[in-house]
Amino acid sequence: MEYKLFIDGRWQGDVPSLAVTNKYSGQEIAGFAQARREDVEAAISAAHRAAETMAEMPAHRRHAILSRTSDLIRENREDLARTIAAEAGKALKYARAEVDRAVTTFDIAADESRRTHGETVPLDAIPAGEGYFGFWTRRPVGVVAAITPFNFPLNLVAHKVAPALAAGNAVVLKPASTTPITSARLCEILTEAGLPAGAINLVVGPGSTVGEWLVTDPRVGKITFTGSPPVGKRLTELAGIKKVTLELGNNAPVIIAPDADLEAAAKRCAVGAYYNSGQVCISVQRIYAMDPVRDAFSEKFVKATESMVVGDPLDERVDVGPMIAQSEAERVESWVSEARAGGAEVLSGGRRDGPVHWPTVVAGATPEMKVVAQEVFGPVASIIAVDSFDEALALADRSRYGLQASVFTNDVKRIFQAVKKLDFGGVIINDAPNFRADPMPYGGNRESGLGREGLRFAIEEMTSIQMVAIRLADN
After folding, report:
1. SS3 of the chain: helix, strand, coil, percent, to 5
2. What is the mean pLDDT of residues 458-472?
3. Residue 475 has pLDDT above 70, yes or no
4. Fold of domain 252-429
5. For the chain, which residues make up each domain, given as ranges?
6. Which residues are catalytic?
7. Residue 329: enclosing H or E segment and its boundaries?
8. In the Cβ-directed half-sphere of 372, how many Cα atoms lie within 13 Å?
């Protein structure tokens, strides 16, 4: 199958030159056109024109389009899930779950499109405001540039596109070059749902060219990016004066307190560490287990890890498929080898077969080892012994990242101690840090990013407040 770029309601562009592969077999499954400078210019121009149409569109019409999009995603569930499994290497069961979440994401966005409003301001709270009536409202920023990663090629796209449209903006979408097919299918669905031409545009190509052309264009009013911290930093340097939301890296810690339900914690942490081959910003990476329960937890966690079925993601039985590229699997393999050479013990896994890296449990890793100090973004979790809850909190917080962390405990005092101590955008109690409900505010502190996603919160980031003051009488 061949795809071109989607600009101003039409498929256009050069002959497809980018090969999109099945990440497990390596077989080419589609060819994609890559955007030239003039294609990006055309996409931004189309969005700039459509932005006026979207801003003037009544909320009930935006609601109808987004609601219909949700329905169409549901109707195309299996086709979309199989596309995600093939182009992203995500196990089919998790690909289906991603599609289901995208259904919910567009459904919530539809509801939020009817709730975007302001409030009155009592200007007469000060003497100078006597005789004035004040209120503020929200207006769309215009053109939103959405730059998305490979690991959730539908729902992370939905978390940028849906709120942008709900707020009355137009979008230029640049998906990861490794997973553009799902975005193309979403453009088709949005068009079928009645979205006006130019309100969604799809351009594909390297971030160093296509991404930077988008970010530097003065007609773009908002950039929403999910990816690595170095790229996020580069985008902020290039963006100039415009709104920016960044969802960047993480190194998610988990604390296992002595009163935790170890069986439940082990199972949830195993899923949290290894689904999508650990290629999730909030994937379990550092597990701080207190001494009284460390051995028992380790045994249960290894057992849960070894229950994972590894193989072709299109196989219904499989839990863990390939990584996005063999080079990434090789990188993870080298990090595990470094830890082993430094004295750490591999309790399970630690092997690679082409682009597949087996779920791996490391014990005895030290703070300077890459598997602890950096974001693995692969199927590796390290169990680290600690003597006290205070020590666990201090080590968990010792990171330049701050997206999400989790604590397994039933002690209310420990819960509030963790909430106060951990400088993370989200603190999850009695579940793994990979928990995300799509309506909730989602984003990180420190080098994990700027701003928040989650439909209502993303809409706030994609609009500007406009204050209105009406003089009613002479003062």
Report:
1. 45, 25, 35
2. 97
3. no
4. Aldehyde Dehydrogenase; Chain A, domain 2 (3.40.309)
5. 2-248+444-468, 252-429
6. 247, 281
7. helix 326-341
8. 23
